[in-house]
Amino acid sequence: LSWTIHAAQSVTEFHEMQHRHGMTSIQWLDSIDVLDERSVIAHGIFLDHHPWLHWTSQQDLKLLSDRGVTIAHCPTVFSRRGIALNTFGAYLDSGVRMSIGTDTYPHNMLDECRTAAMVARIIGQSVTDLDCADVFNAATVAGAHALNRNDIGRIAVGCKADFSTIDLTSPCMRPVREPLRSLITVAGSRPVKDVFIHGEQVVSSGTVLNIDFELELTRLQIAQQNMLNAVPERDWNSRSAEELAPLMLKTVESI
């Protein structure tokens, strides 16, 4: 079985590990003999080569590669906070196995793939740091490998029938020449037509079949309001949600 742990995801963590153990998070995990091909490191951003750390050693990438560890890269949640891997392409070039995760709303794998590609090129200062095929492989076969599964992540005899169909007539997919590149860099989830999980169709022509979407959205809205109402009870200074997180734009009611 594979196992996962969050590691190397903040500057504070890096320096705390140095203070406590005199080594990086990756080096410490290796020192207790848990890094191997079954290991999945969520995030793995602040390795000792990251420029924010200004560290003297650069051993972590090679260590991850030598041990066959997979990184579960979740670019959206960190890019929202101005944090980026340095870089996706550099990890691949070092032989590190890379997969794609979500870790935050809206849990959209195509959005994550696009963000991963764009951020890698910005941080790497090169359009060649990462291509769409690398990202697609990370989101499919590499994820399956991380889970030690050979029956998912690809379409082949004996594999689970997990797949989506894409409407190539959609304007965001036209003109059709490089459909994978168009899907990741332009279209996102808009042209996704049908989705099958283990052979069962769960989305048809863009409509979700196995949940009552409107009912669940209504429940979500109610849950959010209940949470907002409870904020003063949970805040040390009894502040409201509006005080702690004011709206960016005024509503008509507040004017």
UniProtKB/TrEMBL annotation:
Domain Amidohydrolase-related: 3-202
GO molecular function: hydrolase activity, acting on carbon-nitrogen (but not peptide) bonds
Keyword S-adenosyl-L-methionine in record: no
SUPFAM superfamilies referenced in this protein's UniProt entry, alphabetically: Composite domain of metallo-dependent hydrolases, Metallo-dependent hydrolases
Gene3D superfamilies, A to Z: Metal-dependent hydrolases, Urease, subunit C, domain 1
Presence of keyword Hydrolase: yes
InterPro entries: Amidohydro-rel, Metal-dep_hydrolase_composite, Metal_Hydrolase, MTA/SAH_deaminase
Keyword terms of this UniProt record: Hydrolase
PANTHER family, per the entry: AMIDOHYDROLASE-RELATED DOMAIN-CONTAINING PROTEIN (PTHR43794:SF11), AMINOHYDROLASE SSNA-RELATED (PTHR43794)
Protein known as: Amidohydrolase-related domain-containing protein
